[in-house]
Fold:
Amino acid sequence: MTDAEGPEITFGQIDVDLDVQEILLASSQHDFAKLRRLTRTQSALPDAANVKDPETGYTPLHSAIAACEPETDETETNGATKPPIDPETLKSGVNTVKLLLEEGAIWNDLDNNDETPGCLARRIGATELYDLIVDAGVRAEMLLNRLDGYEELSEDEYDEEDDVKESGAQADDETAPELVEVSAEQAASILATAEAEAAEEANPGVTNARYLDSNLNIQEDKILDSDQNGVMMEWESDIMKKSAVALLPRPGLKVLNIGHGMGIVDGFFQEREPSEHHIIEAHADVVAEMKKRGWDSKPGVTIHEGRWQDILPGLVGEGVTFDAIYYDTFAESYADFRDFFSEQVIGLLEQEGGKWGFFNGMGADRQISYDVYQKVAEMDLFEAGFDVDWEDIPVPKLDGVKRAYWVVDNYRLPLCRFMD
Ligand SMILES: C[S@@+](CC[C@H](N)C(=O)[O-])C[C@H]1O[C@@H](n2cnc3c(N)ncnc32)[C@H](O)[C@@H]1O
Structure:
């Protein structure tokens, strides 16, 4: 036992840390004063807001939320509606959850039932608590995204500041290292979530570079990568059709599609008779299949072979613009996507009436992640100068694909334009 750890007793196979149990109990009792003392005093456990019950995997957030679940009568018949959450319990739950979040509780830690605190809040119908966790998720993700940018910037700036430091500029000397230190700590705490670990375990190393190097299994109704991850599935047709119709309302417009996949959205774009139809595709197997299927000789089609990151700056440099742009790649990060719309779309989209869309699959393996990413994207789109409208489309249940990337009920189809 280290100095930082509390007393332990063993029940059967489980070591019970009494300090941890005290925090979890105070959380489940919504004992605000005690919880504040346990998380804020000198003697508090380090990272008290993120302790875990060894048996259930509950964190203090899980405990505080679970305690709001109304008792159900065992004798009630199945399907009987649950009693509503008691307003007083909900109110104290809200205060407890707010306190825990202020004290650094991680919004998306998983319990042993594979639920984040937000999943639990949603399951018991505690909408107010769910919204608090979504907002915490948005703040954490925005911070992480900003810190990524800050770190990139700070390295360059820091080199410049070395010169300043030598000339004795005390203020710069002190602020830069401190900010870098905070960013590393914050990033580590946000990244080191059980959810991130679980995702990595389920899809080890699904990165864009690895995907682009892999051999694809291209079938009539799906494309699978060498790890059996679904790259594109036919059920997404409805989404592609709706996107194509919204983006190209009439013939004679210029469209750019990024990521050909099975050519579903490109097929719908062709039906809308664009005057120019540019397609960027990075995977050699997909490009070969496109040519086999005659895409290089379809009306108005120009195929750009390569990654959008390499192709788009050339098009921007030539001053080419489009009435419509669609983005649907594979195994790229949110940071790639944000670079795409904040640095490329601005130069490529027609100012007058130009519209663009994207395949909105971010966080779709869990409702709360989907909700968090919708808000994060909305804020970043706003910052980049775009308005977005969302349309809900029901999603069918998916079986038999390793990367079951749709767990949410509704797909939210985005349509973006320059702000007025
Ligand atoms: C999900 S599929 C697109 C499906 C397409 N919307 C359809 O309707 O069939 C993603 C495609 O993006 C391509 N891709 C992945 N990364 C890319 C990148 N950086 N630049 C261009 N294409 C990329 C993949 O090879 C794949 O063909």
